[in-house]
Amino acid sequence: MNEMTTVSYQQHAYSEGAKTLLARKPALFINGEWVASSHGETIAVEDPSSGQVVSHIADASVADTDRAVAAARAAFDDGRWSGLAPIARERIMLRLADLIEAHGDELAELEAIDVGKPKSMAGVVDIPGAVSHIRYMAGWAAKLGGETLQPYTMPNSGMFSYTIKEPVGVCAQIVPWNFPLLMACLKIAPALAAGCTIILKPAEQTSLTALRLADLIAEAGIPAGVVNVLTGYGHISGDRLVKHPDVDKVAFTGSTEIGKLINKNATDTLKHVTLELGGKSPVVVMPDVNVAETAPGAAGAIFFNSGQVCVAGSRLFVHKSIFDEVIEGIAATAPFWAPRPSLDPAAHMGPLVSKEQYDKVLGYIEAGKRDGASVAMGGDAPSADGYYVNPTVLVNVNPQMSVVREEIFGPVVVAQRFEDLDEVAKAANDTCFGLAAGIWTKDLGAMHKLASKIKAGTVWGNCHAMIDVALPFGGYKESGIGREQGRAGIEAYLESKSVIIKL
Ligand code: NAP
To answer: Taking Cα atoms as reference points, which of 11, 77, 1 lies closest to residue 383?
Structure first.
């Protein structure tokens, strides 16, 4: 019997610790205090493994948002954080990283309950990733500085010129639901290292770990008002943050559609804006690969985190000589990727995050079939409860189909054949996105040629989604503006001031 039909979709019992956290009174974290929202409204929290409501979070109003901005503004202007010695900022950030690590199991469980991702996956990807971002950026706090410069048109004697790096100021950081804690830490880490203050707005579907992070932020000794956490709706509190005159920078990760809107809305106050947006990343498989290794790699590139990954390898291009073999190899991974409840220790893939996402993904699969695509694997939902979608491969697709052009953000890959390098480079670039790409080959010449032809912020060779905080990350084309991580990531939170003094 097919293993996928024998899985139990019953979510496992929550730990006592998780039950206590889920029972907390809905509150916003403003100026170091837990406060109710001004209108008392809340938002239901669902476990996508069961579809059950398991908690409630506060719904921040415009008035609450203004309060959080005022707190962050005051904390920035009086220098309670930026005025600390860099070694003090570094030490406090390292303490925060240690606390996140110490609470790793609890945070992984919360992420599993909230997002539907397997707890085991959150424990080895999301939590260590969050810790790494804070540890790496903590090191930058003590390594920032300008330079002494010799002006070009002025005499050397009698003039003294230098640059200083200063924090940008109050930052609104708006994050999506696919890696909630990891995205929150990726955002706050460079801002804290630079000396900025923050209003963090997690996605309304997945705010639990951001709220727990606020506890740890206070415990680590980050002063009140430096990091504020607002749960609520993007079109209300998020929109207010983007337009607020006292916010100096908006850092956004999310869909291209909302990213474009935010870019427009931030224009009136000319804020600094960085955007990490959607993708439709190509994975190119050359004829010389070991199929037994590459097919599971291509499967992992799309099915990890139920395909809800900005860099998901959602367009697969396989050389025509090995196309059938690779598709069979991917189909053979179905039992491994069969969706299971997020707290099932055997789960490698969980449900999708919400009913909305479930309907959207199944809608794309149906549209693909209507347009003439064939299902080589999956293509359906295995359970009436929860938001599970089976890992899916669509073949016989063409570049005009919505499944090929649009970001599905689910466990669905479209597979196409190619004959030569130029043809596949052109096909890989036939998209409005440019976030990432994967190339699988032993031919180093082909690897480098293709890596230079593909328009994407990150290119992987013989692996996928290997993201490291030391390397800049961001998108070409409609996948974003700016870079996060590495030196570029900290510089995005700094202003440069030139000082020219006549002695
Ligand atoms: P989304 O719908 O764009 O939402 C992202 C965040 O923006 C949420 O916190 C949302 O709040 C908020 N928001 C919504 N409308 C807003 C508005 N008018 N003003 C200000 N904020 C607003 O994205 P998502 O569905 O959560 O996440 C999936 C998308 O993120 C995919 O496209 C994926 O590719 C992208 N992503 C990109 C990267 C990257 O690094 N490039 C990484 C991860 C994900 P509410 O949810 O509360 O409405």
So the answer is: 11
Pocket mutation for ligand 1, best pick of 43, 65, 178 (most atoms within 8 Å of C-beta)? 178
Sign of CA dihedral 92, 95, 100, 101: positive
Expressed in angstroms and rounded, the spacing between residue 157 Cα and the centre of ligand 1 is 53
- Contact, 36 vs 26, CB < 8 A? yes
Q: Tell me how crowded residue 204 is: count the other CB atoms within 10 A of its CB.
A: 22
Number of Cβ within a 10 Å radius of residue 53? 10
Q: What is the pLDDT of residues 25-66, one digit of tens each?
A: 999 999 999 999 999 999 999 999 999 999 999 999 999 999
Asked if 16 is an active-site residue, the reply is: no
pLDDT band of 2, cuts 50, 70, 90: very low
Handedness of CA 276, 277, 278, 281 (dihedral sign): negative
CA of 253 to the centre of ligand 1 (A): 6
Strand partners, 251: 173, 274
> Per 3-state DSSP, what percentage of the chain is helix, strand, and coil (rounded to 5)?
40, 20, 40
Residues with CB under 6 A from ligand 1: 174-178, 201, 203-204, 233-235, 238-239, 242, 253-255, 258, 261-262, 276-279, 310, 407, 409, 435, 475, 480
Q: What's the CA gap between 427 and 452, in Å, rounded?
A: 14
